[in-house]
Structures are given as C-alpha cells and as structure tokens.
C-alpha cells in the first residue's frame, strides 16, 4: 500500500493543445505554480485477487470516465513494471472536482507517485513527471514544488517538468462556480486544434510567451511575469472561443473579476488575473499584497489566498492497511 499527496498547479503560461494524444506530448511548453492548498491524497493498494482496478473518489465508488482514466493509467504502470496486479485506488480531493481548479493535475500527480512506489517504478521527479503526464498533461507539473517548467520535448523521454527559480508570488483564487465544467479540457483542446483558424498562431505565441516568462522568472521581474500571465490567459480563452462550435469557459462574473483586477492595478496594487478551463479566477500577486487583493475580491465569491506548495510526495500515514483516515 502506498499513499501520496499532491497539489494542483496553476499555469502562468498555459498548456492547450497536444502534439501526440497517446504519449500526451504538448504542442508547446508551459510554466506553472504548484499550490499549497486543495490537496489530493491517493492510496494505491495492490490486490492480485482483483480482476479490474477499483476506484473510490471522495468516499464513493466511481464508475465513470474518471475510473476509466485511472484504469488506463494503471495499465501503463503494469506494462512498465511487469507486475500484472490490479489495485484498489482511493482518492480524496479538497478542491471541487472538474471546476477548472486542476484536480486532474493533483490527482494524476498523486496517483503517479503512489503507483510508482506500489509497483516499483523509478521514483525520481523527472520519471514521475513523465509518468504523471500520461494521465493528465498538466499533472507533469504538479510533481514539482513551486514554479515548474514543463518542456514540450521531442518525445516521451524529454517531455517532463522541472523546477525553475522565480520571485516570491502568491495567488488569490476566486471561486465563482464549483460545478463540473460542460466540456472537458481534453475534448476542448482537441476541438481547438481541429477547428480554430488561430491554433497555429496560438502555439507560436505560447512558445514566445514561455521564452519571455522564463527570462522574467530568472530576472525576478514580477511585473513582467504578471503581464505575461494575464495576456496569455486571455489569448487561451480567445482561441478556445474561436472553436467550431464555440466554447466559452469564462462567465460574466469571471469578466467582472478581470475588470476588478484591472481597477486594483490602476490604484497601484500589482495583481494579474488568469483562468483555466472554467469560470474561476486566480489572481497573481506579490506576497505583501495578497491579503488586500483577497479582501477586495471577496465580494465576487469565496476567496483562497494560496502560496507555493510542495511537489507530489509519498506520505507515511502511520496507519495499518485498511484503517480509515
Ligand atoms: O492537463 P489537463 O487536461 O487538465 O489540461 C490543463 C489545461 C489548462 O488547465 C487549461 C491549462 C494548463 O496549462 O494547466
């Protein structure tokens, strides 16, 4: 039995588009901040008597898409390890699943870490990042603490995330809607690549944003990091809106938060908004401004003032197998 924990990450340069859907290679690299809030905790228990993997999510047996993705992931782990055992997988999420808060990132980072230990696969961060990538692309980054760059790479071996130095930053997350998104990021990404007339431009722009972001991080230039973050997020939502049929994740309330963040900037408080595949907004701030920004944005919904978090890691529960947590 192996238990791991992992946290979501929020991308400052987004991943939106695959070059290879089987190997889960991204069309461009990306960069993110792993958070210290909304933990996922996952236990993998091998059971040679099982004929199929069993998956329990947040206390209930899961029989849907999530279970199928866990099974497909464990098929890969079995193939690599040569151990054919099926497993019981038990996972709990502190964040609402499917609301654009990247629970698939923390979920597959925790699963990759627990499964690598349970099945005896290599446990170094690069190996776990490559493995987590196969479950959900963005999970490659949740293996890494703090700011992570995920290299697009040119194949399985070279596409993984690693840490990168950056200045101190926090994020204020504004929860506008905790319900499951209508179109999964996986389906929406595919539709974007297939139907958007702007897709090639988006990928080229992402490569350029990543290069600028890396140099801004190295220089400790928070203002440049923030500007790239907000403009890159809006570009992603623009390319998503340009699909056929169109997809729109931002709600009127999301747009109102972008405006409020602009108003904070005009008062001299540096804050920059971003959003993933959902209506909730994350606002990048300097550590000394996060409390003010959180208070100001609390009129829109529940706010969480979060900092950089640890990478995915094994946890010793100190409990005998089968004991309730
Ligand atoms: O890894 P996925 O399929 O959850 O896709 C993540 C997509 C975004 O969250 C919107 C962007 C990103 O880089 O995290």
Task: Walk me through this protein's architecture.
There is one protein chain. By secondary structure, this protein is of the alpha+beta class. The protein has two domains: 2-166, Ribosomal Protein S5, domain 2, CATH 3.30.230; 170-306, GHMP kinase, C-terminal domain (Alpha-Beta Plaits, 2-Layer Sandwich), CATH 3.30.70.890. It has helices at residues 65-81, 103-119, 125-135, 139-142, 185-195, 199-219, 222-241, 252-266, 290-297; strands spanning 2-6, 9-13, 18-20, 25-26, 30-34, 40-47, 54-57, 60-61, 86-93, 147-150, 161-163, 170-175, 271-274, 281-285, 302-306, 313-314. The chain has a six-stranded mixed β-sheet, covered by helices on one side. A hairpin with a 4-residue loop joins strand 3 and strand 4 (25-26). Helix 2 (103-119) packs across helix 3 and helix 6 (199-219) runs antiparallel to helix 7 (222-241). The radius of gyration is 19 Å and the shape is globular. Bound molecules: (3R)-3-hydroxy-3-methyl-5-(phosphonooxy)pentanoic acid.
Write the layout of secondary structure elements.
Elements: E1 2-6, E2 9-13, E3 18-20, E4 25-26, E5 30-34, E6 40-47, E7 54-57, E8 60-61, H1 65-81, E9 86-93, H2 103-119, H3 125-135, H4 139-142, E10 147-150, E11 161-163, E12 170-175, H5 185-195, H6 199-219, H7 222-241, H8 252-266, E13 271-274, E14 281-285, H9 290-297, E15 302-306, E16 313-314
Parallel strand pairs: 7-9
Antiparallel strand pairs: 1-6, 1-16, 2-5, 3-4, 5-10, 6-9, 7-8, 10-11, 12-14, 12-15, 13-14
Helix pairs in contact: 1-2, 2-3, 6-7
């Amino acid at each position: 039995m192996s238990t791991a924990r992992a946290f979501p990450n929020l991308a400052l340069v987004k991943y939106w588009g695959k070059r290879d859907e089987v190997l889960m290679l991204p069309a461009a690299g990306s960069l993110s901040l792993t958070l210290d809030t909304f933990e996922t905790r996952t236990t993998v228990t091998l059971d040679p008597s099982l004929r199929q993997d069993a998956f329990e999510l947040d206390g209930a047996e899961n029989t849907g898409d999530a279970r199928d993705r866990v099974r497909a992931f464990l098929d890969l782990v079995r193939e690599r390890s040569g151990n054919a055992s099926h497993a019981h997988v038990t996972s709990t999420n502190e964040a609402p699943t499917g609301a654009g808060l990247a629970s698939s990132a923390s979920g597959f980072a925790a699963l990759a870490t627990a499964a690598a230990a349970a099945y005896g696969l290599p446990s170094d961060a690069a190996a776990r990042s490559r493995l987590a990538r196969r479950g959900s692309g963005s999970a490659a980054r949740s293996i890494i603490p703090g700011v992570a760059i995920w290299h697009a790479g040119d194949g399985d071996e070279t596409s993984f995330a690693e840490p990168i130095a950056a200045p101190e930053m926090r994020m204020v997350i504004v929860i506008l809607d905790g319900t499951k998104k209508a179109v999964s990021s996986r389906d929406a990404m595919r539709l974007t690549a297939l139907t958007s007339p702007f897709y090639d431009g988006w990928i080229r722009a992402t490569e350029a944003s990543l290069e600028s972001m890396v140099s801004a991080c190295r220089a400790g230039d928070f203002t440049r990091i923030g500007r790239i973050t907000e403009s890159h997020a809006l570009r992603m939502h623009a390319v998503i809106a340009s699909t056929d049929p169109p997809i729109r994740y931002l709600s009127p309330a999301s747009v109102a938060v972008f405006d409020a963040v602009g108003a904070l900037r005009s008062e001299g408080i540096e804050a920059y908004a971003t959003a993933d595949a959902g209506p909730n907004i994350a606002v990048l701030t300097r550590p000394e401004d996060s409390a003010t920004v959180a208070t100001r944005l609390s009129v829109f919904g529940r706010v969480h003032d979060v900092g950089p978090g640890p990478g995915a890691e094994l946890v010793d529960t100190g409990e005998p197998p089968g004991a309730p947590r």
